[in-house]
Amino acid sequence: MALPLKISDLEVRAGARTLLQVADLSAPAGALIGIRGPSGAGKSTFLHALSGLIEARGRLCWGEVDLIRLRPEGRTAFRAKNMGLIFQDFLLFDELSPQANAGLAGLFRVRHDRPPISARAAEALARLGVPEGRRTVGSFSGGERQRVAIARAMATDPGLLLADEPTASLDRRAADTLIDDLTSLVRASGKTLIAVSHDPHLLDRLDRILTIEDGRVTGDTGAQAA
Amino acid sequence: MREIWDGLPVLAQDLMSAGALLLPLLVVGGVLLRGFRPWSLIRALMWRFRWANLLFVLLIAVSTGMGIGLIAQERGLRTGSAQAAEKFDLVVMAPGSELTMMLAAVFLQPSAVPLLDGAAYDRIANHPQVQIAAPVAFGDSHDGAPVVGTIADFVTYLSDGEIEGRIFTRSGEAVAGAAIDLQIGDRFTPAHGRGGGADAEAHDGVQIEIVGRMARSGSPWDRAILIPIETVWEVHGLANGHPFEEGDRIGPPFAPDLFPGTPAVIVHADELWANYALRSEFTEAGETMAFFPGTVLADLYRVMGDVRQAMSVMSVVTQVLVAASVLLGLFILTRLFQRQLAMLRALGAPRRFVMAVVWGYGVSLLLAGTVLGLAFGYAAALVLSRIVTERTDILVTASISWAEVTLALGFLSAMSLLSLVPALVVLTRPVVENLRQ
Looking at the 3D structure of chain B, how many domains does it have? Predict the structure, then answer.
């Protein structure tokens, strides 16, 4: 289930240095949000804070759950249940098949969760046009590998998809195809997508763009809508 | 409790000991792996770093195998030498070194020792509790094999009567050991002396015929040729122990004044207990001394026991060093796939699952190394046994006992606990930092 986002007074620090400060931000469930900004501006830090991978201060609520108030294991469990993560360089197990990679979460979920995860992984792989068979993903092209990574993110049926530069490792043609597939899949399923990207082709296809500079949100194309 | 344990069959005790040793591994494995399926990831990591993993497995296998092989070999040598000496209840000799005589009389190692005279032999042979008093005479050889002079009763006793052909009945006949490359009916001329210094022409004109062959005994006597002791004396130009009027008769009784001497008399008593009385009776100051080869071997084993202990300590030290290397290696390998582990954490894998992956990976390497080590140890013991058997003619059989299995299981279990350390350390590494690498 997609969840609305509500942030207030979010702050991420590294020692005495402030890496990120977001005073107030909200987004409805099912929004497709892009985050852009120069390198080192704090985009990935923001994404990591949204996924609960780093410690932060303030309030960061996904629905009714304030991620910052949760203990690390609670954040892990929340992530497992509600979030799908897509990384720039895919982070797949090259030695495994696309199905095994996409259904990875089934390895650590309770027994009755496994069949639906496996089924959703297969469905996502089919919808994304990933070749079937016993071939391992080590022999796949970049575009195919990123599709497997997206299928992995979708397999647990999370309400939120967080993507860090999903097209950065792909050539233009593969990136455009992936953007088509990703956005249509996310829109069809009603999930929330937050993608950090420098790619204007991807950002153009999203509902709202946040610009982050120097650890602060300096632009928000959907401020009124939100 | 102790009584219940002592009442159990040995196999049950061994199995329970093995189970107890494996218990920590099973408990840790059960706790970590419960409800998870990390094996496909472990297989993937195994394949990804296959050469490093193979090196690890070989390192563990060689160290485990070396310890196991040496201990198994030492036990095999002890058992083999004890079996080879089984037929030698009591040896009587002129005063000298028991060890030298045991090596000469039992293991047929050449050595120069003083001789017992005819009177001494007569006293031993005529003792009412002595069933067999076998004089032995060494010194000649054929094709490297010792030619030993003795009496027919001893040959029958030594071979338990299992002789193909027949026993020698007159001077100039011989019974070959099982490993001698001569057939019944073959003839040979003995060389004087043994080894490189043997004089092949010293006994020219002497022809000895093989009339029988002993069954294999697993002792150096398999590679000996046994002839009447009279033949040994005759070819050396000595009296043959019998007066002229007795003609060609061989074997006891011997005339004491025509008895040229024997380095040792191997005594078999009619009752086992009598050996003790005979030993003290035949140990006469300045005249004769008697000893049990078994006791001399036991003393030797005591010394070997110390060596074994040293070997065991060395084996444990090696294992500890390997354990340290394995731990270090696991740390290094986990750093190689820390991005994958961080990704798992980012995807929401519980800490226990990540630990299960790292621990399962380490234990898989250890298990493969230990199993391979047992096989390697067995193979090493097998090769060493063959070499020792070939060189000493003492039948040394290699076998892996529960002691070695226990050693291997103990190592595996201890290492499985230590493998928790890298598994725990992985969890302390920051996820985001590892993802960015």
Answer: 2
Does the residue B76 lie in any domain?
yes
Q: Is A107–B340 a contact, with Cβ atoms under 8 angstroms apart? A: no
Chain A residues with CB inside 8 Å of B353's CB? 107-108
| Chosen domain end from B291, B324, B346 | B291
Q: Which H or E run contains B69?
A: helix B50-84
Q: In order of start, what are the domains of chain A with their CATH numbers?
A: 5-222 (3.40.50.300)
Residue of A nearest to B50 (CA): A95
User: pLDDT digit string (tens) for A29-56?
Assistant: 999 999 999 988 999 999 999 999 999 9
For strands B208-214 and B163-165, give the pairing.
Answer: antiparallel
Q: Is the ipTM of this complex over 0.95?
A: no
Nearest-angstrom CA–CA distance, B79 and B69? 15
Integer CA distances (angstroms), A5 to A64, A96, A196, B298, in order: 9, 35, 16, 83
Q: What is the largest CA-CA distance in chain B?
A: 108
The size of chain A, in residues, is 226
Q: How far is B434 from chain A (nearest CA, A)?
A: 11
Dihedral sign for Cα atoms in the order B258, B264, B269, B274: positive
Residue owning tokens 């490359």: B181
Phi, psi torsion values for B131, nearest 5 degrees: -90, -50
> With an 8 Å Cβ cutoff, are A104 and B38 in contact?
no
- Parallel/antiparallel/unpaired status of strands A32-36 and A208-213: parallel
Looking at CA atoms only, how far is residue B41 from chain A in angstroms?
8
Q: Is residue B38 part of a domain?
A: yes
Q: Collect all residues of chain A within an 8 Å Cβ-Cβ radius of residue B47.
A: 95
Name the residue among B37, B48, B348 with its Cβ closest to that of A80.
B348
Give the pLDDT band of residue B435 (cuts 50, 70, 90).
confident
- CB pair distance less than 8 Å for A107 and B40: yes
Contacts of A105 in chain B (CB under 8 A): 347-349
Could you say which of B255, B272, B291 is where a domain stops? Answer: B291
Read off the pTM: 0.76
Q: Which residue of B has its CA nearest to A83?
A: B347
Q: Which residues of A touch B36 (CB under 8 A)?
A: 107-108
How many contacts, defined by CB atoms under 8 Å, are there between A and B?
Answer: 74
Q: How many helices (H) and strands (E) does chain B have?
A: 15, 11
Residues B277 and B137 in one domain: yes
Domain that holds residue B134: 90-291
Pairing of strands B208-214, B187-188: antiparallel
Q: What is the DSSP letter of B114?
A: P
- Specify if B4 maps to a domain: no
Least confident of A114-128, B158-172, B236-250, B304-318: B304-318
Min Cα distance B343 → chain A (Å) is: 7
Contacts of A85 in chain B (CB under 8 A): 346-347
Residues B287 and B417 placed together within one structural domain of the fold: no
Helix axes B420-428, B402-418, angle to 10 degrees: 10
